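Researcher: Let's run the pair from yesterday's discussion. Sequence first, then tokens, for each.
Model: Starting with the first of the pair.
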Amino acid sequence: MNTKEKLLGLLESNTEKYLSGEDIAEALGISRTAVWKAVNALRSDGCAIEAVSNKGYRLVSDADVLSENGIRKHLDTSIADIGLSVYPVTDSTNIRVREAALSGAPEGFAAVAGSQTAGRGRLGRSFYSPAGTGLYLSLLLRPAALPSRQTIKITTLAAVAACEAIEAVSDRKAMIKWVNDIFIDGKKVSGILTEASFSLESDSAEYVILGIGFNILTPEGGFPDEIKNIAGAIFDRPQKDIRNRLAAEFISRFMAAYRAPRFGGYEEKYRARSLAVGHTVDVLLPAGPKEAYVLDVDDDCRLIVRYPDGTEDSLYSGEVSIKLSHAR
């Protein structure tokens, strides 16, 4: 933990009072100059730190400061010791976790960021990741003997955990658009990207990277034109410590289900939150869209649909997408 991180932890533990530069320097074993530099570095990261002459420094009590200490204090005790790296900004949390995976990091390592410069979504699309209004995180998983076709279950498990985490920190009801998007009141507030490295000999995953992004607030000036009609936010005003709480809720809930036998039987929870089941959608096939009625999502996370001619099909998410234009 560097000086900046130590200072943030100290300020987070003392939001009710001011700490003088001298007290901070003594507590951290650094010089007054180093304290001043660390305060400025935290402010550059977006931390709201007050400075009052003859009193010292204080972290604004209602601030939403993303930090390792802030996340850890909300994590379930069963995963309190997971590896965790937090960045004000990074290119991609999936990239950070891939580097950790190749370096031998254990399962459960998480990279969390307040902004991404190269966030990615499904099918090579970019993932809008502005500073100050979103939360972006990735988890490293090392599932035993998980076939390539089954990795989609990690995505759907994450979708359930995301809905539960959102509802734990807000009064909003979250639903799932098959297979990896989270919606509130008809707007997308979260997206999931799962990437894996497979063994050619066994066709099983050597490791899996689970990435997810949350729109906490609407960015100043709104969302970009290409997504403004579909994107939404979980909150309409800033919330105290919300990013730390949401990150911890998601990680805790996902890891608890992931480690449970059969993923805790999450399939029924997924079906209950589906925006597609019981509605007519457009199946986006290579030959063009085709209308279909969604019957169910099976235990392999395939979408079971019936076309107007009466034929039925089981759709894999990697092969087709759906559009909810007819879903109510």
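Model: Moving on to the second of the pair.
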Amino acid sequence: MSFRLAISSAAALLAAGVPAAGLGLGAQARQEAPEVDSTDLGDGIYMLSTGIAGNLALLTGEDGVVMVDDQLPNTGALIEGAIVEIAGTGAPRFIVNTHWHGDHTGGNAHFAQQGSTVAAHHNIRRRLADAEDEWAQNPATLPVITFGEDLTFHMNGQTVEVTHVPNAHTDGDAFVYFREADILHMGDVFFSGWFPFIDLSAGGSVDGYIAAMERGLEMAGENTRIVPGHGPLSTPADLQASIDMLRQAAFRVRTLVEGGASLDEVRAARPLADLEEDWSWRFITTDRMVQTLYNDAAGNAVSFE
């Protein structure tokens, strides 16, 4: 099932004030008008994707709608239309933010102004409150419920467990696990099939990212369906492949850094050359992944140029 709303281009999304680093797909997102692709996962749960921002999860039922993330500042009507088609109501009762980036929290104000209650980790509210970007200046963007380690919803026959994972993609990441349905939304702690974006400037770290992915794998069973922050609906095997790739990539770069190599020397050594064909993509290219791994190993709080 898919739903379409005319939004002129990725340039219009950037004009909303979402920085390329926060957008994830950035200015290179597809140029045609986006549409919402809806995947029915059963048990009243849906995965919503547009290809221009983070994947959403939707729990529907008589108790109201719970939505995980809400995309960009000017995609609110697009997402709302999809929710109406699925659940008959446009405003979720609750929204959970998996981290603070604008392609996951940009719709907070749109839905909060319609009555949705936004919940998030303490650090998400803090980073949104401190953000200078225009899209984050609306007070309704700020979550009104915050938590430290975990939060649980009991709705529509599901136990929805929200769990903080520290210093991974950012310092405010959370997983959302629909226990009875055995569906895990990992936010941007999982870029399925792609090099991940690890935001060192927002408290993320390579070791923390790997540890968080491993935590996700521990939570998952053989049949768990995993909603990544970006990429297709995935399996534990897909998650394991990402863990193995990042662990190996980090080891290679860290070994060079510990040997005294500069960034230019690490780039020249091309330590991730054999991974490029399978993992590089338009936002986190092989060079940006090398820079992130180098900067993390060198203690620099910036992911890439």
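Researcher: Give me one sentence on the second I can quote.
Model: Residues 2-237 form a domain with the Metallo-beta-lactamase; Chain A fold (CATH 3.60.15.10).
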